[in-house]
């Protein structure tokens, strides 16, 4: 890493588990959890990766139009996802499949948008997981506004851990350049909103490296807006959990926003439509492969005898079953009726739209009568 | 003469513009090494350098806003917006600043800027990747809006747009990027703001632009088998409209249908309909009819075939027109 933000990365990174799987301490952050918790995160990450690989395969087979892989970002997503309380709320981009998993969103539901049968088929209110947002950065403002709402509803700083709530807004390193993201920072800071800005710096915004977006480490941006920023090893699930937990706690207790920069790497292509060989070198991928977020936890679990062999074999079985479920449900996912598109335009529909819907239904029906009566089909 | 796709023709046109004028600069997300997500700028950064082909930060308002400043320094920025649905973060800069600078400065400041936008649907994409935002821009005084429909026009129109001292919204039919045609780089092209009769006919006039030109040509071929003669006009320029060509055809056939992907409500077809009615009322045998997208957001891609006007919907409207 030759860039300014990369050079200091190793120094500034909060890390609690090394790439070799050794626990290390940090003056400011501690992982509060047991080996059983760590095994649980391992399971989350393995299953997240399996969902991701299966979805990628489904795209290759023409079942999905496109897929945005989270390969390599499992620790950033599971670590932050597992730091949340039930009453917290998430505003994702389009890549937070691991966070969705932690919040209990049925992975099948993630496929709809990418298959082109819906615009995001889960219930944001019930799951605490807003719909995926394609327009870069837009959701950070929604997240901030939601957080402002929580504060107005008296759900911040009550001292009751079952009531106090916060928001996490996810975005990428490219998004940091968008006006919306910078405006979100201003609002969050100005209103001391209970929000955690969670930037997954995966080093690339499609073909553009992080240096194109920033000459300083991203977490340092926060200082200019008047709130703390921290850079965490995004491939270290323990550190991400610890750092996010603390930031959420700050937010919930009324101490305002935090920017977390999870320093990680997009191991796959940007999406299945992208060809990263056009702009990045294979060694870079190799360098990051050694930091694989899943492998280091496995190394830890094995070395410390935290789990037995059966744990891994059971997990493999579970993982296969999940993939099979995902595949089958994907193939069975029906296309919506075309007339339905008119139903959801407004809460209170308009006469003009109803006319269009009726006319379209009649037009569609005309083909059926035509082909039924054998007067030449289309 | 070479056969090339629309994407390649644009690439060749951009290359020629970069060669011809050192003040021409390209800017946009991923247009450098990657060559743009549609590869329209492939190889240009390698040949012209990072100062002429600028990989921009991920900020559309920034791309257009800085282009305003560069234009004031005498540059001719050609900005790429990656997909139609991502132009809106730059919308304020385009309609409030780019469009008005010449007017506000009483002609002292020119905005010779091109904003390239791959537009329209039909590629099975997720939301925000299939929009038809032309009416927003055509509604704004100070902007010119054009759409190419084939490789030959793509090659010439992009160069003409760059040469224009006015800001031009340049719409590229993304689902036709890979369609080929012969491109004669020695020809004398039609003026940028001229419409063209691409298929002469006598019964009904179809007005289209961008991706719908092909749909209309196919409809004309199908209609010919039933003995109907459809005239197809490629508008090419959406603002200004070439009403002379449109009116002449309307007076000849007496029946006009506008065809676009954008929703019909307040779309370009509405303006065309109004102006044809004003200018050709006594020649019309039927009201000007409109085929377009529905007044819904662009639907999930599995429904786009239902949403997008196709040959059948155009022919259906031809029947209605002839039934008057
Ligand atoms: C406003 C806007 N502009 C352009 C795009 C096209 N686009 C989709 S993802 C992407 C790169 C995003 O990079 P980053 O923010 O780092 O997130 P990542 O995808 O790497 O997680 C771009 C340019 C978009 N979706 N929205």
Quaternary structure of the protein: heterodimer
Number of beta-strand segments of chain B: 14
Examine the secondary-structure arrangement and name the CATH architecture of the largest domain in chain B: 3-Layer(aba) Sandwich
Principal-axes shape call of chain A? globular
Largest sheet of chain A: 5 strands, parallel
Shape of chain B: globular
Poorly predicted regions of chain B are none
Number of helices of chain B: 12
| Domain tally of chain A | 2
Mean pLDDT of chain A: 94
> How many strand elements of chain A?
7
Cα(first) to Cα(last) distance of chain B is 46 Å
The helix-and-strand class of chain A reads alpha/beta
Give me the strand/helix succession of chain B. Answer: EHEHEHEHHEHEHEEEEHEEHEHEHH
Rg of chain B, Å, rounded = 19 Å
| Mean pLDDT across residues of chain B | 98
Distance between the termini of chain A: 58 Å
Strand content of chain B: 15-25%
CATH level-1 class of the largest domain in chain A:
Alpha Beta
Protein name (chain A): Pyruvate dehydrogenase E1 component alpha subunit
Cofactor (chain A): thiamine diphosphate
GO molecular function (chain A): pyruvate dehydrogenase (acetyl-transferring) activity
Organism (chain A): Microlunatus panaciterrae
Model description:
The complex is a heterodimer of chains A (378) and B (324). Chain A is built from 15 helices and 7 strands. Chain A is an alpha/beta fold and 378 residues long. Chain A has 2 domains: 35-331, Thiamin diphosphate (ThDP)-binding fold, Pyr/PP domains (Rossmann fold, 3-Layer(aba) Sandwich); 341-373. Chain A has a 5-stranded parallel β-sheet with strand order 1-2-3-7-6, with helices on both faces. In chain A, α8 runs parallel beside α9. The longest helix of chain A has 26 residues, at 35-60. Chain B is α/β, with parallel strands linked by helices and 324 residues long. Chain B has 2 domains: 2-183, 3-Layer(aba) Sandwich (Rossmann fold); 196-323, Rossmann fold (3-Layer(aba) Sandwich). In chain B, the strands form 3 sheets. In chain B, strands 3-2-4-5-7-6-12 form a 7-stranded mixed β-sheet, sandwiched between helices. A 5-stranded mixed β-sheet of chain B has the order 9-11-10-13-14, sandwiched between helices. In chain B, α1 packs parallel to α7, α8 (212-225) packs across α12 and α9 packs across α10 (268-280). The mean pLDDT of chain B is 98. At the A-B interface, α6 and α15 of A face α11 and α12 of B. The structure holds thiamine diphosphate. Thiamine diphosphate sits between chains A (95, 134-136, 172-175, 202, 204-206, 266, 270) and B (29, 58, 60, 82, 86, 89).
